[in-house]
Amino acid sequence: MKNEKHQHDTEPIWNGGLLPRLGLMTAIMVIMGNMIGSGVFKKAAPMSASVQSAGLMLLCWLIAGIISLFGALSNAEVSGLIAGPGGFYAFFKKMYGRAFAFLFCWSSFSVLQSASIASIAYVFGQSANTLLGLPRLSASWESISIFGVFFPFENFGVKVFTICTLLCVTMANYFGVIFGGIIANISTMLKLLGIGVLIVLGLAAGNGSMDNILPLGPASGAEYGDLGLFGAMFAALLGAFWAYDGWNNAISLGGEVRNPKRNIPLALVIGVAGVVGVYMLVNFAYAYVMPVDEMKALAASDNSIIGVEVMRKAFGNGAAQFVAILILLSTFGAMNCQLMTPSRMYFTMANDGLFFKAAAKCHPKYHTPSTALLMQGCWASFLVLTGTFDQLTDTVIFASFIFYGASAFGVFVLRRSMRDAHRPYRVHGYPFVPAIFVLFCFALVIVTIIQQPREAIIGLVLIFTGWPFYFYWTRRRPEA
């Protein structure tokens, strides 16, 4: 304890006032808390509707988990080499220069992180609706649209509840990273325990059957879209990747994690590997209880959540309410973890003169990027009004994998540009592991453009809205 205290007291304070207060365990909990949110309870139904086979649905979860682990391993090397406040902003600035780093961080604000926060919070609202029966507006109000794409008054009670929750969690993080870290630790532990109970109950269900898992391959007579089974698998993988998304977020806490060059790589590997195992088990339990045809029917329902409906079928309404409460806890914890990390990027970018000047403020008492947190919470609340859960998540995954591929390719870039630098961690399986991840990211982006052009266009528009701001800010503050 004495040594730990001395280490804490002598830790450097990063420029801007952020303090390195978080340990390895909290970094792991932040990663797992980010990843285990809404997707594990929600995405099995639309994935089953895409591939029309429980075996293929489980295969998609496994493939997405392995690919995500490859991405985490690749980024672990980079985070061991470049650690500090700003996370991917610092990575991309070193790899590709200031403009690309700005584009990533602007994209995080406009779509990647903000829409991710909004969609997780939306499932929190849907779970509350299962318990409380939140009010809806009339059909005439719900039919009002913007450009025929966005329906801001649809499911309005859920959306208002979601926004109120978002703002409350934003204020909790405003008052200190330690407070946010404590919420991450407690909520992640509790939801892992709850998911363990869900898995045991699902596999013990008397009306479950191994026949529901079959066939392992495509079902006879299944019909797919223009790209056939290949396109259906990629559509399902979008859902799985959403559930795995968030493994990268501890990187943004580099200025607040003790010994970041050791602890962040370790946290990435341990956190992602653990989540892969959890997801495979829980989705196997879903498929064991509920046949694919019933999952497909759930995918077409507005507020249905497969985790809730599986328990309702197996054990009745009491078990369904238990899962609804578990999802409330899970999404609340994930929302908290998601809110903690990206605001640090905006804070760092603002200090470089490449974001709204107010976001560079560090609260003098709480040592948090207070204004960046408030800006992020308000924009995420606006995004809640614009889209449904699946629309938000597909847009996020498309945009994310553009930059995830670029970050993994940075392993090759830095092996050349920083050849002699000390690397606390070198990616196992180099060059194959980062190369496979980069190629998969490229393929996923291309297939999404073909299969879901609306989500791809929305994502690209939000990414490139940052260019006018970049030229304005660089004229005011050129790079030194």
Identify the CATH architecture. Up-down Bundle
Number of helical runs? 21
Which fold name fills CATH's third level, the topology? Amino acid/polyamine transporter I
Supply the CATH superfamily name.
Amino acid/polyamine transporter I
In short:
The chain contains 21 helices and no strands. It has 480 residues and is mostly helical.
Overview of this structure, please?
With 480 residues, the chain is mainly alpha-helical. The chain has a single domain, classed as Up-down Bundle (Amino acid/polyamine transporter I), CATH 1.20.1740.10. 72% of the residues lie in helices and 0% in strands. Helix 2 packs across helix 15. The N terminus is likely disordered.
